[in-house]
Design brief:
Number of strands of chain A: 11
Number of domains of chain A: 2
Largest interface: A-B, 52 and 52 residues
Strand content of chain A: 15-25%
Number of helices of chain A: 10
Shape of chain A: elongated
Order of helices and strands of chain A: HHEHHEEHEEHEEHHEEHEEH
Oligomer: homodimer
Distance between the termini of chain A: 40 Å
Largest sheet of chain A: 6 strands, antiparallel
Chain lengths: ~230, ~230
Amino acid sequence: MASILSIAEVAAMIGDPARANMLFTLKDSGAASAGDLTRSANVAPSTASEHLAKMTEAGLIAVTRSGRNRYYRLTTERVADVLEGLEKVAARTRPDGPETLRNDEATLHARGCGDHISGRLGVGLAEALIGNGTLRHGQGGLTVSDTGRIALNDLGVDVSTLESAPRKLLALCHDWSEDAFHLGGSLAGALLQNFVSRDWVRRNRGSHTVLVTPTGAAAFKKRFGIAYRVTA
Amino acid sequence: MASILSIAEVAAMIGDPARANMLFTLKDSGAASAGDLTRSANVAPSTASEHLAKMTEAGLIAVTRSGRNRYYRLTTERVADVLEGLEKVAARTRPDGPETLRNDEATLHARGCGDHISGRLGVGLAEALIGNGTLRHGQGGLTVSDTGRIALNDLGVDVSTLESAPRKLLALCHDWSEDAFHLGGSLAGALLQNFVSRDWVRRNRGSHTVLVTPTGAAAFKKRFGIAYRVTA
DNA sequence: CTAACATTTCGGCTATGACCGAAACATGGC
DNA sequence: GCCATGTTTCGGTCATAGCCGAAATGTTAG
């Protein structure tokens, strides 16, 4: 019979988004290297290493070495069972958790020229990506720079694939709500898919709006300098 | 499909010892009042109220009112399932968790006159209970004072029941390890049972020693002024 | 109506955990 | 042997969660 304290410690191990991400990656894939899990959780290697050490020490995961790589896996099926159980419980509680940003801070909608990210996120993204050189505003319109191509690929957006499609890659559209220009085109759509898969934003069913999560707000601020305030 | 973030939030809800205590109390008993859960978790009413509000908001528990009491219960069987799963996982990981106090700081053993709590805990308890008036050192030996009786009952130790048993209620025995007197008798045994159930101490299998947990160290310091240092 | 009980709210305090960059260490490829 | 890659360690920063007491609020018993 485990004590309340040790049970709480196991739950707390799962109770961090980065660690939870890693645990689910391991549940789904069976095993993964420290590098894989670092990218999956989107944290610094040092952060990932510390989390992996904690989960190993807590007995949730086990490690084997293969060359320079360390491969991790869940220690038992019971750990996987707990993750599934938590997933079921989480699915039945409030879908956006106790703390969310307000609804109308980012919108997604489809128009003639493809997906758009409007609102503060879309405008902020447009400004950030032009400002940091990812996108270039040239004579031929908006284009992706060479270094920008690499950065977007690192983020998980394959620019070449998007370019070979018939849809327009990039567009700047006037955003009446922010009185500025926001991002449109298939790149905007791909970015948004990426943000959804990272749980930076969540789609609102039956609406074009998306919800920026606290994790997303932190990521947008850090990566793109887009500031959001947590609201009640 | 719940997001990683919402799953981590559910797990984090369980990942606090006070909240976990309340959740398990509800799992075992079906329903309990806020006051019951406050005592169970051994926190201040304000702390308990805040925890209950969080778990309610997170969808883990639900509340109904009856007069001045608020009664809580788990919202679904899935929550109970997760708690059981966590219990199984915790039972198979390191039983004393990543951080414990050293083994030899308290010992429990049975002698001719009944249970003893020796070592620092036993000596500290004896001193504290005499010092705060719970126990009186009179001509008839060591006795429980009237106010001490109430205090012990509040702690969950039923002194009357112990007194009606044939075993010796109280004894002071010389503790060679601390060169002082420690507590013995059925009251010592009942206190120790109480501490185990609160996860303030844990028995070491195959040994008379017990382990003082960080929670226990905090409680002993606060309630009895017995200082422990957390060790590696 | 008042006192007692149950519970909540709020402001404040403190410990701690997550995060990271830089440096160090381990391993493999050339 | 050197360089690149993967990973860990360590010192430091900062946000936040848990805790509480005091006061406030709600309900009931007398």
